[in-house]
Every structure is written in C-alpha cells, then in structure tokens.
## 1
Amino acid sequence: MADDMILSEAVRHERPDPVETERKMSAVGVSVWYGEKKAIDQVSIDVGRENVTAFIGPSGCGKSTFLRTLNRMNDTIPNARVAGRIELDGEDIYGPDMDVVQLRARVGMVFQKPNPFPKSIYENVAYGPRIHGLAAARADLDEIVERSLQRAGLWEEVRDRLQESGTALSGGQQQRLCIARAIAVDPEVILMDEPCSALDPIATAKIEELIHELRGRYAIVIVTHNMQQAARVSQRTAFFHLGELIEYGETSEIFTNPKVERTKDYITGRYG
Amino acid sequence: MATTGHTLKAFDEDLEQLRASIAEMGGLAEAAISNSMRALVERDAGTAQTVVEDDKKLDALEAEVETRAVQIIALRAPMADDLRDVVAALKIAGLVERMGDYAKNIAKRVPAIEQSPNLRPLSLLPEMARIVADMVRMALDAFVARDPVAAGQVCARDRAVDDFYNSIFRTLLTFMMEDPQNITPATHLLFVAKNLERIGDHATNVAEMVYFAASGSRLGEREKGADTTVGG
C-alpha cells in the first residue's frame, strides 16, 4: 500500500493508483506554462469523490496553479498554457464540448480572501442559482438560499438579516458566505485556495468543521500553507515542490511516515 | 539527527536536549546494572546502597523527559520522524526507568545473601549481566545515532540472555534439591537472574522503539527465546 503511493521519478508520468473512494477528478501528465516558464511539470493525480484532498508545498511550488487547472481558472490568465488531460467523471474538461461556465458551476471555488459581492447576503447566494436557471420561482430560490446557508453553517447567524450587505459580515462569516455561494449552484467538487489564511483561529476552526461536514457530499480539494490544517481536514495529501508532485498518499501516512526525503524535510520544517 | 537542521533552530535544540536526557538515563541504568552485580559478587552492602539511592536520579530524569516531550508536542507540533522520535523518547524513558528498578531490586538482595554460602551460579550472573548491560548501551547508542540496524542487533542478543536465564534456573533448582539450606540464597539469585532477564526484554523493547523511530516501520515480530522454565 505505502509503496504504491510513492510517485518516484520512474512512475511520475503514470496515473497513480486509484484512491479508496471512487475517482471524481483525474489529472494525467498535466503541465502548465506561464509564457516560457513551466509552473507545473507532468502532474498526475486522482481526486476521490468522498475525500478531502490537501495540496501542500512551499510558496511557488505550483499547488495553487494546479488547483486552478481543475476548473480552468487558468483560462483567464492570458499567457497561461495547459497540457495534459484533466477529467471530471471521465470527461475531458479541456475538451471542445466542455462549457466552461457549466464546468465552474460543477467545480466551484473558494478563494484565499473572502470576496462576497457588494450585495445583500441573500443576493450573494441567490446570484449563481439565478444565472444558471436553477430556481423557477422565488420560493425555490428562497429554499436554495436557506439550504446553502445552512450547509455553510451560517444560517443561524444571518437568518434575520438576509438583506444586509454581505461585506458587513466578519471575515469568517464572509468566507462561509462564499462557501454558501459556491454550494448554491449544487457543485460536485469544491476547490479551496487557502480558505483560512485571512481568518482568526476560531473562524478557521469553523471552516474546518464545515469542510468536515461537507465531505462526502462534495469532493473537496484544499490548498493550504498550514500543514496542521492539512493534517486535520484531509484524508489524502499531495506534496508539491518546484512544480512537481513529489508524494501523494494518505494524510496519516504523509505526516507520520513520508516516503520521500523532500516531503519529510518540508513537513518537519527542514526545508530551505 | 537527520542530515539537515530545522529552519527553527530552537526546535533542534529541544530535540537535542531530549536525546541527551535519554542518553544520560541509559548511562545511569547501565551503571546501575554493573554496580548492582559488583555489589552482589563482592558482597558489598555499601555499593548496593548507592545503587538503591542513585535510582532516584533515573526517576527524576524520566519525569524530565516526559515534561520536555509534552512541551515539544505542544509547542513544536512535530511531524514525521520528529514525531516518532518524541514518542519513542517518551516510551524509552519509561522502559529505562524500569530497568533501574530491576537493578535496584538486585542491589536490595545483597544484604539478604551476604551471609549465605557461595553458590556456583553466582559465577554465571556477572556474565549474564555483562550481556544485558551491553544490550542497554547498544540500544541507547542506537537511539542517539538513529540507527535501525544497530537496534536490530540488540534484539538478536536477547536470545543469549534467555538462554542464560534458563540455564541458571535449572542449576539453582538442583542446588535447592541438594540442600534445603540453599533455598533462601538460591531463590534470591533466581530473582536476580529474572531481573536481568527482564532488563534484557526492556532493552529489546527500547531497540524496537528505536527501529520504529528511525525507520517508520515496526521490527518484525521477533522469535522469542523460548522460556523453558514454564510449562512442560
């Protein structure tokens, strides 16, 4: 088992063995360039349907870049180029038939800094379902908003002030609002790019608890600089370094007995 | 230690101190074993008393290791081999403290057999004690050097200790059968042999922890030296 999880130089170009849970997303030999600079080099990885998958690694290792390839956020960067294949339920997300807007509804994203729209709390959550035509009537929309806020653990705190501005909430509440907004369009995968780095420990704990509760309903991929956080919330951890996927395996194994020296040096604080 | 230090130097110092405390405990336990044996052979009650009193140092060091280890876990959040090292240090400290207790128990028996006739198995005990003390030193050296191979060698030597124990057990039994007057001193010597045998087992357990800390995997279930003194 343990040996299978090592992505040594020799097997790096092959798809790693499937994780225990059913595969939701799958990257095969993915490389990303920003102009001439190669940011990601031949990364192959599977994301499990019922897992929280954590990407860790030092700044500039490519983990956020790779995360953004999973819902084609890199398309918005003019000189970014992606090679390789990324599948969502077996479907090539870079294929000609893929509707990028639909893709980003299926693979939602939560960013480092909470970025609610300068609109009411209600509108922040209702916006996505409305433009995607998910609600036929006002009552349907109300229900989606309530359900999303409940799943995001925010409902009790905001139910009486849904018309207040989303930007008036605290940082942690704003981040949960952004998660509610991502959930509202009923995604299959949620990508989180350092969702707690701007939050205090209590707000962080609430987000982590939320991640724990959302697990199983959505496949979750989280990029984090906080290794303790990766250890706390994820089942699988991938370590990136200099654009390469160095090691990918069970979180409990990565943090107690990593197989690759570079992983060990990083997680024990010997890097650099 | 690993090849490169931590970015946070204070973390290295913490681990180094923990390691040093464990090494010191090992040295004290080793001395306690050989001193208690010397006291026994030379019937030296004074040395025996010193062994008993020195055991307090081991107890204090164990408490110190516990405090340091808990602090490291709380303040440094160690991962991977660092975490395994700290957990191993905690368990090893407990094991070495027990070794000290066994050596103290040997020393406590010195006055009881001081007046008894010299029984021949007494000559086997120092050799058994030498092997046991060697195992303790090797196990602790392996911990300091993070050497899983040396740790494995400690486990291999436990077989010899078990053989010694079985042999001493049988010999003492014949002495007891020959002359009931031998029963009291022979029983004491039997406990001494048993104590040494237990120290050997503890040294083996230390070596197993060292192997785990250094390699991340468990030493395969080793073949135990058959205890031929029970059953049959």
## 2
Amino acid sequence: MKFKKILPQFLTLLFIVLIFGFFTMNAQENMDTRGIEFGFGFLSKEASFDIQFSLIDYDGSMSYGRAYLVGLLNTLLVSFIGIILSTILGIIIGVARLSPNYLINKTASFYVEFFRNVPLLLQIFFWYFAALRALPMPEDASLFFGSSYMTIKGLYTVAPVWNNFDIFFIALIIAIIVIFFFNKFAKKKQEEEGKQYPKFFISLGIFIIIPAITFIVGGVDLSWSFPELKQLAKTSFTYEGGMGIPPELIALTLALTLYTATFIAENVRAGIQGVGKGQKEAAASIGLTPSQVLKLVIMPQALRIIIPPTTNQYLNLTKNSSLAAAIAYPDLVLVFAGTAMMQTGRAIEIVGITMATYLTISLAISMFMNWYNKRIAIQEK
Amino acid sequence: MFKYVKQLTSLVAMIAVLFTFTTETMAAKKSKTLKNTQKKGFVRCGVSQGLPGFSNADAAGNWTGVDVDVCRAVAAAVLGDANKVKFTPLSAKERFTALTSGEIDILSRNTTWTLSRDADIGLTFVGVNFYDGQGFMVRKDSGITSTSQFKDGISACTNIGTTTELNMRDFFNSKGISYTPVAFEKADEVVAAYDAGRCDTYTTDKSGLAAQRTKMTNPDDHMVLPETISKEPLGPVVRQGDSVWEDIVRWSLNTMIEAEEYGVTSANADSMKTSDNPQIKRLVGAEGEMGAAFGLDNEWNLRIIKQVGNYGESYKRNIADTGILPDRGPNELWTKGGILYVPPSR
C-alpha cells in the first residue's frame, strides 16, 4: 500500500523533471543553432560603460561583476532608505488616522486613499518630471541649511572629509557593543533587584562620548567640503565639491516612501485597533503610566498584528525599486539587466543572476522580520 | 490501482505531446522562417517605439519610416503585399532577445552593426540602410558650438542598451573630461529629462537627435553639434542560422538601393520591363530567374519597387520631406558622392 502512496508523488516529480529537461534541452538546442554560448565568463570582462551614481569606486574600465555590485548596492540603498522612511511615515499616518481630531484624521485618510490608489510608476514619473520642472537651474538655486542647494541636477550638500575615519568607525562599533552589554546588565539588575536605570540617556551618552574621545586622542579629524557653483558654458552651470545626490534617487525614494507608507499606515491602524480596549484600562488600573501602558501592554500585542503584513510591504518596496529603470536611477535592473545585458547579449545568465539576487534580498528581509517578530512576540505562559 | 489510470494516461499523453513537439522542431530545418511567414500570412517585424523618419506610428497605428520600409519590402517580396507586416515596437534592451527568441523575424530598428553583436549574440546583420554617427545636442543659448567647449562636470542624457553609452565613454575619456552619464530606458524619457534641463547635452545617433529635436517643446532652442564621434552603420538584423531568410532580407534592401541607382521608381517600374538595359530588366523580373534561389517567383523585386518604391523615394518620403535630415549626406548613392553601394543583382 506504501507503493500506492508513493507512485503519484514519484510521477509528479518525474513530470516536473521532464518539463524542466524539455525546456533546458530546447533552450540549449536553440542557442546552439544560433551560435550562442552559455557561461558566466563575461562577468570578469571589461564593462566599458560608466554609471551615473555609485557607492563604491567604479569606472568603465572595471568588470561587469563590479558593475553588478554597483547596481546591487544602489538597489539596496534606495530600499533601505525607503523602508526606514516609509516605516516612520507609516506609523505617523497610522496613528493620525485614529486621532480624535477631525482635521488630522481626515487628512490622513485622504493621504492613504490617494497614494495607495494611484499606480506607482505614475507616481515615480510625477515626482521625477514634475519635480524636475519645478526645481531651479543650478545658477538660480538658493542656499538652504547654510550650505545646500536643491537644483534640477540634484541636491548639492556638504560632504564630510574624514581623517583616520577607520579609528572613528571602530570607536562607533565599540560604543554599540558597550551599549549592548550595559542594557543586558540593566535588565538583569531590574529583574533581580527591581532597580531601574535611565537606560536611554546612558546609552545615548555612551554613543556620543566614546567616538568623541577619538577626536581628542585618536587623531580623527573632520572637515567639510562645500559645493561651489561652476560655469560650464554661457547658460550652463553645475556644482563642484561637496556631495551631489541625483534627482533620480530623490524622486524614487519619495515615490516609494509615499506609496508604501500608506499600506504600513493601514497595518499600524489595524494593529492598534486590534488590541482590546479592556487591555488598556486594565493596565492603567494597576498603576502603569501611559507610556508604560503603550510600551508594555499595547505595543507588544499590536506588533504581532502589524509585523507580518508590514514584512510584505518591505518586500514590495524592494521589488518595486526596480521601476528605477524608467527614470535613470542606476539600480540593479538598469545597470545589470539593462546595459550589461545589452552589451553582452547574455540574456539567460543575466536574468537568472538578477532573479536570484532579488530572491536573496527578499528572503534576507523575510528572515530578519521573522526573527524580529519571534523576538517581540508575547510568550504565552 | 485503477484509481490512477486516468491520471496516468493523461500524463503519458502530455509527455507524448512534448516529444512530438521536439522532434518536429528538429525536422524542420531549411528556411523555417520563410515557411512560417508564408503560413502565417504576415512578416513579423521589430521596430522602435517611435523614432520619426525611421519607424514611427501615426495616431491611426500606421507605421512609416525607412526601417519600416525594409520590412514592407520583404512582405512585398515574400507575400505579395507590402501591408502584410505585423510591427512589434521594442526598446533597445528588448530588441535582440525578441529576435533570438523567435518573437520577430526581422529586426529593423536603427540598430548599429558592430563586430560583437554580429559575432557574439546569435545575430546576423544583412546590410546598411542608413549611415549614421553619434553626435551631441545642446541648447543654443548655452553658446556651445563645438564639443571642444565641453568642460569637466558636464552631464549627458542618453538611453541604455545602445552603443551610445560606450562611444560616449570613449569620447570623454579621450578628451580627459569628467562627465555624468544619465541613462534612461526609453527615448521619450531622455527627451523629457533633457528638455527640462536635467542634462547639459543629449547624445545619440545624429539621425536620432534630428528626429527627437522635433519632439522638444521648442525645437529651435536646440542644435546638433557638428562633430561626429563614431561610425554607426544602421541596418536590419535577422537570426543566425537561416541563411535563406537572411538572403531574402539582404536582397530586398539591395533591390531598393539598386533600383534608385538605375532610375527605377514605383511609378515607372512596369514600363521598365521593356528596357534595353539587361540590368534593369533583371531588377523588374523581366529577365533571368532571380527569385528561384530564395524559393520566390520572378517578380519579387518588381513588387518591392512598385509597392514600396526605391531607396531614394523612401528616404524622401520619410526623412527629407518630414524635415528631419533634408541633406542625404553619406546616404546618397556612390554615383552621386555618397557611400551607398550595393552588390549587383545578377
């Protein structure tokens, strides 16, 4: 009887293998007749195209592998900023939707309904082209925050120029480790002796003081480089020095943030509304302060409703960042699955690598969020 | 056991279908493309997403342009009707994959013939229907009149997936100028961004610049600089591995160019049948068996000239009369100071 159980499964598996085999064989045969070779050797060949914006050192004389890395980092950058900003905005809007204040409440619901119901690509185009048209040319830009210029060619702002940055960086890591152990110690003290420390302020102090010491004894030095207007031609200007953030990155971040924040806001609202009113009243009745009620009673219960759907939004944001190609932000899709694919003609290999990369990023985010969800979940006793 | 008989039979049937499919694809070897085209009744042609003069659709969806005419010529030769073409608009990035995967049979999309494309990625270029070169467009009020006035920090808009990105790098590197490339996926966005002032210059093939200039808010505010920084021979492409189809496309284009050389036009083609010149008679199918080698009838070339016209007519209709590039430059016949020279049909 075991045989009867296994047979259908075996046949299904065989069938799947056959289908894959068929497609692989067909692809191979077609590639053979057209003289296309399969392989990843192209990754070490010279890319010979330049990229507008890169977090690492790159120019066209480097390899396609390096270009891939540039695209990957740009994708990660926009996803990371997008996730942080949309979470902050999402929480604010989500809480605002529950506000008893009519104006705040209605503004928040209008925002949610508007931004989640307009296609994202349109929003990206809107922010990019509308903003481009609205921004001044470099020579007309006015100064803000003392040293930044917002122009059609991007945001030009001050750039830090470090001396012995590595020492400073190590000090930062040490500070984080110290804070970690301090918090562990504080928690233990509280559990054993009921003694409470002002954890936040002490942590902040450590975070500032340890790196600050390196300025005095470590030879760390920080100066600033300011953007300066440069004339290219009679009516054409740009800025030199400082740090230039391309308008493509700004528009993409803005669009992704505003779009994703609407969904996160709804998750937050659902989470808070999902916690029974009695919970809050019971917590208050045993003498917890309002902030303790929120921190110890409401949030732990709300978060388990908020986090799983929010993970989905983080994944969506990361995948949606591939729309960057439309507005020239050099992300993975534009650089690698775009230019590099065209120059090498290695469609199967490059699409394969790109898909595997997005899968890896998404799984990593999922894993992190699942871990976090488990950590903060209420341990039922 | 009987429970699974039904599932088993359907499974076996599906596998059988898969195998017959495979053996069929292996058996049909000799000009599969021609056979398929005649069976379908239309030529599948890949074109641009809208480049005036080369391949552009009007509001009613009618395609015109010199690239479009190459596909129409093939349709006239193979199917007898220049209108039996199905056009697929493709981005620069999609075009080769669409061709190698068999989604289209001719790629006639202002595509530059280069060694690596011809040799590497399973494509065969069949000829040149437009000699072009990469140039730069700038705003007139910038006062720039030559690329020698470019300075460090200049930003250049272009689109990805083209030889443009590579030429641009070679050019700026050789001049030692640092620049910011802003590369978009589609040409319309490049135009919009450059027009808004995102970039100081817009670079692509000069024919493309001339065509896209007509799409700007104020075309007269912009000018194309005189320098040409690369050779860009544009021409139709077919898949590697079907030499008969390759020949049909090549000689359809050659026929158009040769017809101009001998003064055969869409208007006088029929009367040329009685010409004294055997070369002309061969061009209009009145002498020799010029179509037999492709498996076509004898009047395939006459149909091309009658329905599409010769190269000069096509150029005038699409590029000169529309004001894109009134001067034919290198795209003039070799007998008139240009470099258009095709092997003889005989």
